[in-house]
Amino acid sequence: MEWPPKNELDTEAFREQFSFLLPFNDGVEQLASKIVSRLRNKLKHAANKNSTGFVQGYMGAHLRTEQDASDAKWLDFQSQTSAFLSMARERDLKYIYCATGNETEFMNFQRIAGQAEIVVLSKWMVLTNEERKQLKRMTFDQQGIVDFLVLLKSQFMSGITSSGFSAQLKTRREYFAKKKDPKVNVETIGKFLESESNWQPYLEMLWY
Fold this sequence. Notes:
Elements: H1 12-18, H2 26-42, E1 59-62, H3 67-71, H4 77-90, E2 95-99, H5 103-115, E3 119-121, H6 123-126, H7 129-136, H8 140-153, E4 156-158, H9 164-180, H10 200-203
Parallel strand pairs: 1-2, 1-4, 2-3
Helix pairs in contact: 2-8, 8-9
């Protein structure tokens, strides 16, 4: 297997199915589905999807400001959140679903967004008490997959190009969008921060 695909074994169908060879845990997918369903209902877009299949009404944001990101001098909190809010305002999106491993920064983002009349939500806020107990029993990575699946469905999504998590989301969202609508402009479904050159290491390693 190579990237970019160079031989007859690397067919489009194979690439499409490769990342699904090991399915996500059923409990993880169920929680993510419940979150997306409640977001649809809350935003009154229960059956509303655009031509790409993404759910209308909320933006997905991967706020990557944990200590390792800071040590590596990735974009700081202010740069990321300012960009996210600007994107939301440009698209008249009043809700942002935020995935982050930094609870303090999430609360700061929520406070700043509130001043712009934008609501920032997390998985912990959307799930019920019993569902939160189920989530707490999961590993940190499993909890991250819940976020991944919710962000995958968002109308518009942003993150930083230094993050492998965001890189995988970018490639998957663009791939599925083009499967639904070959003429789609990928800039309408997501915008990522920092230079595109930061994607290259991930594009050499990641499959759709």
